Amino acid sequence: MDIRFEESGCEAGREILDGLRNRFSAGDRSCRDAVTEILQRVQVEGDAAVIEYTRKFDAPNISVSHLRVSEEEFGEAEEQVDEDFMETLHFAAERIRRFHEREMEDSWITTREDGTVTGRLVRPVDSAGLYVPGGQGGSTPLVSSVLMNGIPAAIAGVRQRVMVTPPNQEGKVSPALLMAAREVGISEVYKTGSAWAIGALAFGTESIPRVDVIVGPGNQYVAEAKQQVMGRVRIDMLAGPSEVLIVADEKANPAFIAADMLAQAEHDPQALALLITTSRSVAEQTVTQLEIQLEQLSRRNIARTALAERGVILLSDTLEEAVVLANEIAIEHLELQVRDPWQWLPKINHAGAIFLGSYTPEAAGDYVAGPNHVLPTMGTARIASALGVETFLKKSSIISYSRQALLDDADHIRRLADLEGLTAHGNSVAVRVESEKE
């Protein structure tokens, strides 16, 4: 197995760690100019541009009248999925709902004795757009993305929720995706993808509504488009390749470690699968297990490339050091495959999601555990959080002064306004104070 294997304290190990600490990248900007042109065309031409791109890259015969998924298509989808799928869909959705319902924020008010009222008003955005990748022409529908992005938006109370996803060559959308959309309460689904779909959501077209928030994963064109429209709309995050870091002691099971490293590596040739362990024996057995398990995978070539180009195994002297390094790396998925992982949880400061114990694979978090699987990557777990209900909420401050409260605060307000050279600010208080004297 071709994977880097170093001691954390040696020169090569230190170089690897420096690279991991500074791995943030704005993404592959090679498509920037192409995306800019696409977005400009969608903004100016609307549906015509969206249809032209969709015909060129996805469905050659699609028309504007078939851009939106019809009720008939939803009905056909319901007949095409089996009971086992629907059972799992309901199961996963319920788990995710229960978790995210705890995230909902309340408005609040506080009062002072002088009659001043301050507070915060929490309101959902009016609209949100969910981007769902096509998944190899619809053959691998990303149902979990629909659930993880759609459910928090529903709990937040977003009134209009729409979904865009590229159709297959026949102009169809996977029945599994349509049933997932229905599960989260989305009935407005449009058959278009890539940067032109992001543009349609950001600017609006004759058929596709403009939204306030755009969420969902995608390829480099989708990521670049989201970056270019950010500010006009809110986006979930700038995401890099999927990541996992496993911290393991001498009691960890190498087969479990290898399985979880491969679960990340199969996502993308640029996926990042890391192991920091205090045991050379565990490290060596993990390498053996990686080779054995790799041959069983349908995406073995992708996983092998990811491990060879970005995979790392580091030997650490102590678990204390391993945890320090984990905080510095600030990984998307952090697994603690150690004895008494709860002992180490208070020492974890930076991670998108933390998986405790040998029987908690990252895959559980991807699908049914409940917490969101849209997580900060590239070290941004130092400053960012998982997608959640708050992604679809905004907060307004509430301020109400009584007459006496303004009189009591007037000198302080005017003093600060004068210091900043903002005489009109000070005057807006002075005219009220003088009015009271009259």
Q: What would you call the quaternary organization?
A: single chain
Radius of gyration: 26 Å
Order of strands across the widest beta sheet? Answer: 1-11-10-9-12-13
CATH topology of the largest domain: Rossmann fold
The shape is globular
**Mind telling me the CATH superfamily name of the largest domain?**
Nitrogenase molybdenum iron protein domain
**pLDDT below 50 for ≥5 consecutive residues: which ranges?**
none
How does this structure look, described?
It is built from 17 helices and 14 strands. It is an alpha/beta fold and 438 residues long. It folds into 3 domains: 4-25 and 240-369, Nitrogenase molybdenum iron protein domain (Rossmann fold), CATH 3.40.50; 29-235, 3-Layer(aba) Sandwich (Rossmann fold), CATH 3.40.50; 403-437. The strands form 3 sheets. A 6-stranded parallel beta sheet has the order 1-11-10-9-12-13, with helices on both faces. Strand 9, helix 10 (254-265) and strand 10 (272-277) form a beta-alpha-beta unit. Helix 2 packs across helix 9 (220-229), helix 10 (254-265) crosses helix 11 (280-294) and helix 16 (403-419) runs antiparallel to helix 17. The protein is globular, with a radius of gyration of 26 Å.
